[in-house]
Design goal:
Length: 179
């Protein structure tokens, strides 16, 4: 068996191509696998739960210069990356919350696409960040989170867990829809 590692660039996962010897001089090698090595860049791997379901989704937390990113892993392949941070917000700053402690998936807006609730911690306090899922003709992924939702949940949920954040949203759906 022969394995070749391809380094594909900065903050991009390497790939490992594996071929095996066939013993046939006309065709000496046969393709065996081509695998993304997402574990190399992951600082933490979390089994993201699916709300009110027994399933999980593998999430790799990767540090970037702007904070943690969450890679969604399906069949050992990164299918999309979520960025649980705000581009510009004067209302709330979550830069100090760099530890991803929990990820849960749930269709918050009833559009048939799973959204992601991420619980971030700074060691003392936690915040919930909602990344809404989308699917279009070109791709699928998660939108930039809304600072208003994080601020609203932080003001109203004392024990910040994904289940508690989801329960609060469900109990206050009209308020949530107005954000």
């Amino acid at each position: 068996m022969l394995q070749i590692i391809f380094h594909v660039g900065f903050q991009t996962n390497n790939r490992r191509l594996t071929i095996e010897a066939t013993g046939d001089s006309d065709n000496p090698y046969r393709f065996f696998s081509n695998r993304e090595l997402w574990e190399e860049n992951a600082v933490k791997v979390i089994d993201g739960t699916i709300y009110q379901n027994t399933g999980t989704i593998t999430c790799a937390v990767v540090d970037s210069d702007k904070g943690p990113d969450i890679e969604i892993i399906v069949d050992n392949v990164v299918t999309c990356v979520a960025h649980p941070r705000f581009r510009d917000s004067e209302d709330i700053n979550i830069e100090q919350y760099s530890d991803v402690v929990e990820v849960e998936f749930w269709d918050v807006d009833d559009d048939g696409v799973a959204d992601m609730i991420v619980i971030l911690s700074d060691g003392d306090d936690s915040v919930a960040v909602l990344c809404e899922g989308y699917v279009n003709q070109w791709s699928e992924g998660y939108t930039e989170p809304k600072a208003e939702v994080t601020k609203w949940l932080s003001e109203n949920v004392s024990d910040m867990t994904a289940d508690n954040a989801i329960s609060y949203i469900l109990d206050h759906k009209d308020e949530f829809n107005d954000l």
